Amino acid sequence: MKKRLILIVAAFAFTSMIFANNQNYFTDYSITDYSSAIGINAQIVGKNIVPQLQYHHWFSSRFGLELAGGAVYSVTQPHTGLDYLISADIQYLVYENIFTDAFAADVFMWGQAGHRGYTTNNTFKADITLATGIGSEFLIAKHFSIPLKVGYLVQFPNTLMYTISASAGLRFRF
């Protein structure tokens, strides 16, 4: 699995470099200059990791929105069967730094509202999720970003759960 992931990331990087050869990489820029992004994400919810597709957009130099959704079929207890999560994050950019022409990073606070559905003992349950935390995004060659987030997540009403939530992803900014 690890070899496949490395191969996919390398192929993605190689093809993007081919199409981005007309870019001028030696100018000042801000992370929010490339305001939109699409990519993949994995979020830990309880004992399950839910893979997601995501869209991100900075509306200004400080405020952004992230929409994500994904599902996994779980065979582990306590939730066997379908497990999905659809969420929306509001993000506030706290700090950004352009280290070099090819590497930048930012720190942001985020709040998330979502809908989670899962199967327990052959019974489907749907819950609301609310989360908040802090995150960072690393921008490589102005277009590839690695977002990392950690925070606290509350889930209710069917399964009351308070847990640490973490996620990591890979996005292409444009």
Q: Layout of SSEs?
A:
Blueprint: H1 2-19, E1 36-45, E2 48-58, E3 63-74, E4 81-100, E5 103-120, E6 123-140, E7 144-156, E8 161-173
Antiparallel strand pairs: 1-2, 1-8, 2-3, 3-4, 4-5, 5-6, 6-7, 7-8
What does the model show?
- There is one protein chain.
- By secondary structure, the protein is mostly beta strands.
- Helices cover 10% and strands 66% of the residues.
- The protein contains one helix and eight strands, in the order αββββββββ.
- It has one helix at 2-19; strands at 36-45, 48-58, 63-74, 81-100, 103-120, 123-140, 144-156, 161-173.
- An eight-stranded antiparallel barrel has the order 1-2-3-4-5-6-7-8.
- Strand 7 (144-156) and strand 8 (161-173) form a beta hairpin.
- The longest helix has 18 residues, at 2-19.
What is this entry, summarized?
This protein has 174 residues and is mainly beta. The chain is 10% helix and 66% strand.
Please identify the oligomeric state. Answer: single chain
Give the strand content: over 45%
Question: How would you write the strand order of the largest sheet?
Answer: 1-2-3-4-5-6-7-8
Q: Evaluate the radius of gyration.
A: 17 Å
**Structural class by sheet pairing and helices:** mainly beta
Average pLDDT rating: 85
Main sheet?
A: 8 strands, antiparallel, barrel
- Helix tally equals 1
Number of strands: 8
Terminal CA distance: 28 Å
Residue stretches low in confidence (pLDDT < 50, at least 5 long) are 17-27
Could you give the order of the helices and strands? HEEEEEEEE
Helix content: 10-25%
Sum up the overall morphology in one term. globular
